[in-house]
Automatic annotation (TrEMBL):
An MF annotation (GO) of this entry: pyridoxal phosphate binding
Keywords attached to this entry: Pyridoxal phosphate, Transferase
Name of the protein in its database record: cysteine desulfurase
Enzyme class: transferase
Organism: Candidatus Roizmanbacteria bacterium RIFCSPLOWO2_01_FULL_41_22
Length: 417
């Protein structure tokens, strides 16, 4: 049988909560048993520290830990394992680049470009860097249809990229997929054209909502850095990946200091490890790194193309069914063409408060998100204080869409005075 049809069985949470309709994977994904078992394996069988121990269980832990770097390297088609830094999360990866590289290359009068659809983790670090460095923060807007308001040679909107990127632009930090609008941005084209205008520009891609859901090839994208989080792709919380070009990592100062990131320490001076280890100070989240490897293997067994296609089909079905059932009473944010978006669907139902909707859905064990989804600038721009958000992953199916619709009907009835 098709693996996808039997997937729910791999997720122990559905045995505990058989009525659960989980539609909040954009916040965090559920975990398959193989990942839970792998984490347990580390704690039960070789829970020693890495790199330092000259004994068997430490060597085993080190080997399992470093093997994840190879798995991540091939998963995103990086050139070398030295381009893979373990972080705590996508957020930490972005802060690492903004602090380590950003503060050494951005100065007064320089420019940093971001977009209005960024998650706070790809907004605030650049806003704060711009303030500190007295640089200008430029923000690309979105069109009413939910696309970046950015004219490229092949995409027609109001602001041509050459009006935004210039030779003062030091950094372009941009999300691959919006966690609210679901828009898949034409990242490859944007990077190619930005680099044509200014070959020295550093492009940082937030892959938090892309890497778990579609094939991502960093060499093909042409970016300089890419971040993502393990917990949104079936892995544990507290582990993220920062991919970066080796020549940039070599020039960047460490982000934190301490054990494991040094070659030699003397009273007067310290010699650091090479990248990626120079960015991994202290005892890391060993179980998290090892668990992430298992999560990636699970995704690879299904295939990222298949996952992407299936989520787009689910999204298309959901958009159609919501339109049929609620008509003009529902506004789904972002592009209406399902091929332009990922399986994240933020919406407003009449003028009901998204928190009230989420609470009523919860009575039927349907988990969605309500609020600003860590994208307050985008919500302010769209003139909404909040939205409700349903998001899909590999364990969702058409039955979940029907449950969502039944739940929303109930919410509509309850909240209509
Ligand atoms: C687009 C995007 N970027 C970054 C993040 C931050 O991820 P984390 O909280 O795992 O660091 C999120 C989380 O929701 C996100 O959706």
């Amino acid at each position: 049988m098709d693996k996808i049809a039997t997937i729910k069985k791999d997720f122990p949470i559905f045995a505990r909560h058989p009525n659960l309709t989980y539609l909040d994977s954009a916040a965090t994904s559920l975990k398959p048993l193989s990942v839970v078992n792998k984490i347990q394996e580390y704690y039960q069988e070789y829970s020693a520290n890495i790199h330092r121990g000259i004994y068997q269980i430490s060597e085993k832990a080190t080997q399992e830990y470093e093997e994840t770097r190879q798995v991540v390297t091939s998963f995103i088609n990086a050139e070398s394992e030295k381009e893979i830094v373990y972080t705590r999360s996508a957020t930490e990866g972005l802060n690492l680049v903004a602090t380590s590289l950003g503060s050494s290359i951005v100065g007064a009068g320089d420019e940093i470009v971001i977009t209005i659809m960024e998650h706070h983790s790809n907004f605030v670090p650049w806003q704060q860097l711009a303030k500190k460095a007295q640089a200008k923060l430029k923000i690309i807007g979105v069109t009413p249809e939910g696309y970046l308001d950015l004219e490229l040679d092949n995409i027609k909107y109001t602001n041509h990229i050459s009006k935004i990127v210039n030779n003062k632009t030091k950094i372009l930090a941009i999300t691959y997929v919006s966690n609210v609008l679901g828009t898949i941005n034409p990242i490859k084209e944007i990077i190619a054209q930005a680099k044509k205008i200014n070959p020295k520009i550093i492009v940082v891609v937030d892959g938090a909502q892309a890497v778990p859901h579609m094939p991502v090839d960093v060499q093909d994208l042409g970016a300089d850095f890419l971040v993502f989080s393990g917990h949104k792709m079936l892995g544990p919380t507290g582990i993220g990946i920062l991919w970066g070009k080796q020549e940039l990592f070599e020039k960047m100062p460490p982000y934190q200091y301490g054990g494991d990131m040094i070659k030699e320490v003397a009273i007067e001076n310290t010699i650091y490890q090479d990248a990626p280890w120079k960015f991994e100070a202290g005892t890391p989240h060993i179980a998290g790194v090892i668990g992430l490897k298992e999560a990636i293997r699970y995704l690879q067994k299904i295939g990222m193309h298949k996952i992407h296609k299936r989520e787009q089909k689910l999204l298309a079905d959901a958009l159609k069914r919501l339109q049929e059932e609620f008509g003009d009473n529902i506004t789904v944010l972002g592009p209406q063409k399902s091929q332009d978006r990922a399986g994240v669907m933020a919406f407003r139902l009449a003028d009901f408060h998204p928190h009230d909707i989420a609470q009523i859905l919860d009575e039927s064990h349907i988990a969605i998100r309500a609020g600003h989804h860590c994208a307050m600038p985008l919500h302010t721009y769209l003139k909404f204080s909040a939205s409700a958000r349903a998001s899909f992953y590999i364990y969702n199916n058409d039955a979940d869409i029907e449950k969502l619709i039944t739940g929303l009907k109930k919410a509509e009835k309850t909240l209509t005075k």
